[in-house]
């Protein structure tokens, strides 16, 4: 199958498949002399595995490590996927039940204890922190946490205001070309800001931008400032990293 056919079949973008190829996560069976990527049935089976892992919150680097390991067993992985998805469904079912009970409670039909109001919620692990640790290692994250933790209340407030200000400025120019002077000046401001709290290399900066699109949790939060902002930042960050690396 050609790349457009695969994208339409699966429901993902051609750009995403290009990225998977570039990072060695999913390399097409063949690339024609004209540059067309051709995917085999085996490629599609690998893509299914990638998307299963992605649905469960695994970062792309971790997925690549798992599926490229000589000890990787696809059937065993499917059993694990099933187990984890069933657990995810169980938690979602509990949350749906809590929503329905809360609606009845608001109408005065039933009584709800405070404990019942929060059944199904699980904040035992911060997914953003865990993903960052797996992608870039503990040291950079620990340094960032330490810097933020050592800030006074007023410094933290200034930090948050600056953070939001940059996002609002980028949202305002998100319809411009990622390689435009305006976009690159805006994204440099974002890079410089991140460097104040952590030791982010240009490669890490580019990878972070890709995560903004690959991980729906990031996309959802970023696009609150303006629809399409996550993709604009991803593309602008890639241009900035590539240009600065030269």
TrEMBL record:
Q: Which domain of life, per UniProt?
A: Bacteria
**Cited Pfam families:** MerR_1, TipAS
Keyword Ion transport in the entry? The reply is no
UniProt entry tagged with the keyword Transcription: yes
- Coiled coil (residue ranges): none
Q: Which CDD domains match?
A: HTH_TipAL-Mta (cd01106)
Q: Where is the HTH merR-type domain?
A: 1-69
The molecular function terms of the Gene Ontology recorded here are: DNA binding; DNA-binding transcription factor activity
Keywords from UniProt, A to Z, are:
Activator, DNA-binding, Transcription, Transcription regulation
Q: What is this protein called?
A: MerR family transcriptional regulator
């Amino acid at each position: 199958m050609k790349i457009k056919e695969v994208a339409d079949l699966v429901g993902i973008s051609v750009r995403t498949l290009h990225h998977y190829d570039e990072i060695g996560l999913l390399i097409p069976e063949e690339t024609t002399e004209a540059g067309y990527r051709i995917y085999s049935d085996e490629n599609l089976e690998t893509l299914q595995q990638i998307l299963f892992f992605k649905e469960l919150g695994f970062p792309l680097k971790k997925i690549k490590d798992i599926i490229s390991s000589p000890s990787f067993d696809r059937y065993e992985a499917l059993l694990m996927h099933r187990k984890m998805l069933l657990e995810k469904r169980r938690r979602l079912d509990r949350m749906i039940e809590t929503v329905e009970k809360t609606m009845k409670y608001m109408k005065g039909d039933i009584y709800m204890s405070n404990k019942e109001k929060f059944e199904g919620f699980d904040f035992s692990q911060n997914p953003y922190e865990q993903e960052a640790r797996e992608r870039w290692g503990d040291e950079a994250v620990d340094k960032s946490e330490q810097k933020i933790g050592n800030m006074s209340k007023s410094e933290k407030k200034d930090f948050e205001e600056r953070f939001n200000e940059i996002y609002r400025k980028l949202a305002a120019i998100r319809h411009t070309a990622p390689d435009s002077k305006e976009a690159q000046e805006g994204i440099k401001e974002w890079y410089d800001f991140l460097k104040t709290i952590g030791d982010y290399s240009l490669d890490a900066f580019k990878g972070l931008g890709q995560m903004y699109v690959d991980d729906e949790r990031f996309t959802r939060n970023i696009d609150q400032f303006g629809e399409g902002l996550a993709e604009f930042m991803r593309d602008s960050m890639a241009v900035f990293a590539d240009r600065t690396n030269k």
